[in-house]
């Protein structure tokens, strides 16, 4: 994320515009944008695939309450802040309601993929704390994407009835994808007898068709790719192999092009001096809303202060998912370039701070695989077979 910003007008374009034009000539930028958006679709498919909806249905009350707290409080605070920002930072012609709802939704995001990587790198992913945090983040992600579908429908609709129609059509598409899972599973298993390459082609074709469908509905194409990932049959080895191959190519090779495109739209130097105060407020509301919402809900659910503080810190990780959501808002014209820049700064700061704060809070900590000292029962936490750390 940071490299994409540094390659843009915020640093390289400001210090050495000639070098920037040499590295990113204007003639190449349209192709960079197309490849970056294709990578975005595949990445959203992978996010949906990594959301275990069966596990979400079985989440414990504590997980649901923490996820709700980490969504609702930043959503409410973000919406209140957006009301104040609307005169100064809303794009011309954008109605107040979609602007306010989008800003609130953007501040309530948690990056499940980045959080999983941070916990895995520290050997915490299979601990009670890690599985609990990941279950909360997965639930948070599912709720946030539902909110985003509603907000994008409202933003692109000409009237409330158009928004309801877009929501109904998106719900119908989701139901159709879910109902088709047995047929899709048999088709993929039959294709796997030929080659895994054919399975990959079929999956990419399905996500592109769904992306076209949601685009025609009036919702962002990325939503269609996400829905395919969320509804694709689970437990099919060839699907897992194809997903691993897509991730190995798209995430390290093509997805950076999306961040380069994002960086070209992030111009810190162009942000007026008077709007840096808004940037500080956005950062403060984002951090405190997430931390207080998640930590407070965890405390009410029976977690002790250490667990609550850790959960509040972990749920503040916004990462790639936040950048994706902001990019959708910018493409739809719901947020201005200046607010996009402000929120990208917030996303980078909160993501960069997560790992160091986690290391500090877990230093000399008791066994994080044990139940909370305040008495959260083991049955209140997600079961993790083989959690031995």
TrEMBL record:
GO cellular component labels: membrane
GO biological process: proton transmembrane transport
Coiled-coil parts of chain: none
Keyword Coiled coil: no
Domain of life per record: Bacteria
Membrane topology summary: Multi-pass membrane protein
Gene Ontology molecular functions: antiporter activity
InterPro entries: Cation/H_exchanger_TM (IPR006153), CPA2_transporter (IPR050794), Na+/solute_symporter_sf (IPR038770)
One Pfam family, short name: Na_H_Exchanger
Major place of residence: membrane
Localisation: Membrane
Transmembrane segments: 28-51, 63-87, 99-120, 132-157, 163-184, 244-264, 276-297
Residue span, Cation/H+ exchanger transmembrane domain: 1-358
Keywords assigned: Ion transport, Membrane, Transmembrane, Transmembrane helix, Transport
Keyword Ion transport: yes
Region listing for Disordered, in residue ranges: 369-389
Protein name: Cation/H+ exchanger transmembrane domain-containing protein
Organism encoding this protein: Streptomyces alanosinicus
